[in-house]
Amino acid sequence: MSGFxxxxxxxxxxxxxxxxxxGPILFVASSPVWHxxxxxxxxxxxxxxxxxxxxxRHREILPSDDPRIQxxxxxxxxxxxxTLPAALxxxxxxxxxxxALYAQTSADxxxxxxxxxxxxxxxxxxxxAIDWNFILHSRDDLLRCQDPWRVGAHLVRTPAxxxxxxxxYLYQLAKEGPGTGAVVEIGTWRGxxxxxxxxxxxxxxxxxxxxxxxxxxxxxxxxxxQHGVRDVVRYYCMSSQEVAVNWSYFMxxxxxxxxxxxDGEHTYKSAAxxxxxxxDYVEPGGMICYHDYGENFPGVVRAVYEHIILSGKxxxxxxxxxxxxxxxxx
Length: 330
Ligand SMILES: C[S@@+](CC[C@H](N)C(=O)[O-])C[C@H]1O[C@@H](n2cnc3c(N)ncnc32)[C@H](O)[C@@H]1O
Description:
By secondary structure, the protein is an alpha/beta fold. The protein contains 11 helices and 16 strands.
């Protein structure tokens, strides 16, 4: 819709039923539970008799007995066509959805990137995002977020699910950060943050980047090659825990990690397992960083608190938006 002015969905004049395009409306509920529940209630209240499809990671948010609702759950951190089960993707494709709403609370809009691919695949023609303050924004923002980004002197065209200042922080740590040993990334996705890390390593001639993800994204190798880092990045298509237990074998005994970047599954269980499997490969002087440290992912905050902050082994705690970093000191 051109010339769309942002509107708060809590405004008494807001009516979801008056939005153009026929067919059901897709609501992707990705923000925290309190936010999604209020948004969901408001959408139900204002949708008239239009059908709503809720795609959510929060099992507790919706009344299930309303005949206008179909609810589907997803579990992965990065929502995209390849992380949804094929059967669910087929249901969504056949649903005739033309209008989608997406609830997100990230100030830097990174979450738009993941939904954009899914919506293209579903052939959705109108998309709006609902922010912290329940304001509905047009998809112009969504398209803008796919712009290339810069680290050092490099222009990068691969999307990353991180804010630009976080990519710059990782690039600088890889380039001139403390410690000795490998740079390890848990959670490759399409290679965006791996490229930032690898360019930092290349620019300073420091050892290679290891990146780990059990889900291989089809454009990963092309993305790495396009940015000249194909030979600097070693990719393991395995879970981070599997690589950790074979780490000494893979690295021929050179197990030290100078920068550990954890951006895998963001549940408490997974963030804690990643931490406990990898923490001790980071030697004193090395850094550990986590993505999505904040109220959107309380499991990450808890894992960091219990296994980094309380461990007594780390200091220099710092935040760059939703990126947490610490230095190993003993
Ligand atoms: C938020 S995305 C990573 C984004 C990426 N760092 C970027 O450039 O923006 C999270 C990724 O973690 C992966 N993942 C999930 N569980 C994992 C595990 N146990 N080990 C490694 N990666 C995992 C998912 O497949 C997904 O691609």
